[in-house]
Amino acid sequence: MTPARFQEITARYAALRIAVVGDFCLDRYLEIDPARAEVSIETGLPVHNIVRVRNQPGAAGTVLANLAALGVEKLHPVGFCGMDGEGFELQRALVTMPRVQMRNSFSSIAGVSTFTYTKPLLCEPGKPPVELSRLDQKNWHRTPEALDRAISSTVSKLAASVDAIVVMDQAPVEGTGVVTERVRSVLSGIADAHPELPILADSRRSLREFPPVIWKMNAAELALLGETADEASAVRAIAARNGRAVFATLAERGMLGAMPGGEPEHVEAFQVHGPIDIVGAGDAVTANLAAALSAGASLREAMELAMAAASIVIHHLGTTGTASVAQQHALLSKGPPA
User: Which string of DSSP letters, residue by residue, matches 249-274?
Assistant: First the structure.
């Protein structure tokens, strides 16, 4: 990608309006000082003393944060949280992001749990943080019918006023999160009515039940679809079947993408330098693909920008990072991946 083309694409971000529909989680980091370790007098078990707590949005919230870092003009989060302390912290973190439109699109609901990932980190001076076993809190009950209908209605209304829709399905059990069967049906209708609108979907479980929108997945998620061919052939077959672009990230092997009827394209990953933390890299890819495609980037251009963002994010340790346009420009100015 030439510098002029990079500038042309990224300059359009400031006029974009993007909806992020999905499961917004609270990432709670507990920074532990090993020098303050104790042993419980009562139980004899180790005591980890927490010296700092950091809260930030995760899952769909990470996608939103990456879009905000790119300078997208208006961001519409569509989701829900519980009426609990975690929900309060999640909403507080969301409203501090620039250009986020919370009104009428994000709900606080009694009787459901806020998706929360609690991440204890051992933090020693001069060393990368070490993450201990994560503690997850998820919503295991079906999404209330009234909430499901309200979310579906919001998505339908937003379709006419946004430049892209990103769908992030993080729920461990079907029907317990934002992206229910009803929401997928609404997205299918939007895709039919607005074929030019980029709708990019990512699902932790599988995209098998999703309508034929733009599918983004990693290698393991691609395998879950049961394609018997090699990865490149699988991506090509899915693109032909769905009639939409398909993307598959391959970790250190880079990324594959294909348009309907076209040959798969491959973009290499950038070389790593020093310790890395891959948490959030996939969400950064999702956000950058959506922004780039909305701004008129080609398939390959969108993948190049997404790979640059992923390289930046994985070098942020002990946090779920983002990648700005300036950071991507600096990295791409050094040349393409080796």
Answer: E-GGG-EEEE-TTS--EEEPPPPP-S
Cα separation, 270 vs 72, in Å, equals: 25
Domains and CATH numbers, the chain: 3-26+57-119+141-333 (3.40.1190.20)
Helix/strand/coil for 233: helix
Mean pLDDT calculated for residue range 310-325: 88
Encode pLDDT of 226-251 as tens digits. Answer: 877 799 999 999 999 999 999 999 99
- Global confidence as pTM: 0.93
Taking the C-alpha atoms of residue 307 and residue 267, their distance in angstroms, rounded to an integer, is 8
- Interior angle at CA 328, CA 324 and CA 329, nearest 5: 115
The 8-class DSSP code of residue 202 comes to E
Tokens of 55: 């809260």
3-class secondary structure for 84-99? CHHHHHHHHHHHCCCC
